[in-house]
Amino acid sequence: MPLLADRQSQLLIDGKLVAGRKGVFDTVNPATEEVLGVAADATAEDMGDAIEAARRAFDDTDWSTDTELRVRCIRQLRDALREHVEELRDLTIAEVGAPRMLTSGAQLEGPIDDLAFSADTAENYPWRTDLGHATPQGIPTDRVIAREAVGVVGAITPWNFPHQINLAKVGPALAAGNTLVLKPAPDTPWAAAVLGQIITEHTDFPPGVINIVTSSDHSVGALLSKDPRVDMVSFTGSTATGRAVMTDAALTIKKVFLELGGKSAFLVLDDADLTGACSMAAFTVAMHAGQGCAITTRLVVPRARYDEAVEIAAGTLGSIKPGDPTSKRTVCGPVISARQRDRVQSYLDLAIKEGGRFACGGGRPADMDKGFWIEPTVIAGLDNNARVAREEIFGPVLTVIAHDGDDDAVRIANDSPYGLSGTVFSGDDARAQAVASRMRVGTVNVNGGIWYSADAPFGGYKQSGVGREMGLAGFEEYTEIKLIATLAG
Ligand code: NAD
Fold first, then answer.
1. 123 to each of 57, 68, 117, how far by Cα in Å?
2. In DSSP terms, which residues pair with 377 in a beta bridge?
3. SS3 142
4. Are 114 and 470 in contact (CB under 8 A)?
5. The domain 265-446: what is its CATH number?
6. Which of 238, 216, 95 minimizes the C-alpha distance to 158?
7. What is the pLDDT of residues 423-450, one digit of tens each?
8. I need a surface site. Which of 161, 316, 317, 409 has the fewest CB within 10 A?
9. What pTM was computed for the model?
10. Sequence ranges of the domains in the chain
11. Nearest ligand 1 atom, CA 237
């Protein structure tokens, strides 16, 4: 069946597609402000039903121990998503405002293919490891380490890369034997809800194993952090919300996995190709209108070449006009909502109040009256103490900061409440790697290397999060460790 043929999505609870008790809410195209259709609006009672279904599926079925079934279901899901990939592409461009070119990578096709990594990992995983014989306290004992699912996982996700983030939780959590309730962002309900339709039509997932609850009300998602029937909450979103999730989860001492905000630095050392480095930094900030948590939004350049660096960055960013995400050539689409546009604009206003200047951009494009747009912008003339250099803006905005050598560049990179990602460019790989090893961040790009991949762990230091998503580490986040000690005969 075509996806969301009647332009209305439902909840997936206990294996059935059902309506939300609160009715429906609109999902909107951020490039045109057109209402695309509606999504089921869940209440606290709906969320309670979903949690109960996940609890039953975990406690009363053999899902957590039947690895073969889990692997089969995840591969079915991957195959069905691939079959629907062109419909999903259109949906993603329309609902997320994601430029078409990004849908062949992290916005869509990448995370679908990456489900294979979760299935393969579960299939080949050493669920039991022999720790061997020992005589602790003089008692002969044979020890085995068992890895087991944590239980019911509550997954709460944002709107910027919805498929990537939804599937990077759904894949490993289910492959590891957990059951799950997914609560997506209200701005992108369909990207998650289509999974419900595909799962019911094309896969053998038993009822309750995966539940999808869309809601216009953030407090419905908060129930996942609070409810004692949920064993673990896996959250991606802002640091402020992550803090609320952690606080709520403390009431029941839940396992908490957090992927939060960032303010990552792109360090250009004095022997680097300045034009290549600054152009790349600028281009990256324009992609998906800067709505990526790991985008390097602080460009840190040698003081002696500051003006030149600003000019190069502005040359690149100033030439990228925000535009129609359906076009193959568009790099910078809209931001997700009027609220987000106004938030970015308030940071641009703040940059001027703080004494900065715009080398390009600086506001809303004059010629676009429908949709939520921000011009790619370079802020110059500020140091790392400015709020626009410290706080996450989440728009196509690059702040250029001067450094006085490698030590100072590292100091600036680390002088941030965040620690998500970073980049170092130098003419000398060893020198760049030495700088990379001093950065307190979860991923570093050295001279253009790509850290994003299904087998590579991703996550943050400091207030950018707790734990790692993807890779083996991302799979093991969804497991508990049990030591079984047997008296040796
Ligand atoms: P957000 O924190 O506003 O919302 C994220 C999700 O949390 C949404 O589903 C929302 O409904 C839900 N939510 C809101 N309040 C809640 C509460 N009290 N309890 C539980 N859930 C609640 O974030 P956003 O605006 O949707 O996304 C942008 C943010 O996400 C940025 O800060 C960005 O850096 C971050 N992000 C981080 C990563 C990463 O991997 N580190 C990836 C993508 C986005």
1. 21, 7, 10
2. 397
3. strand
4. yes
5. 3.40.309.10
6. 238
7. 999 999 999 999 999 999 999 999 999 9
8. 316
9. 0.98
10. 8-260+465-487, 265-446
11. 30
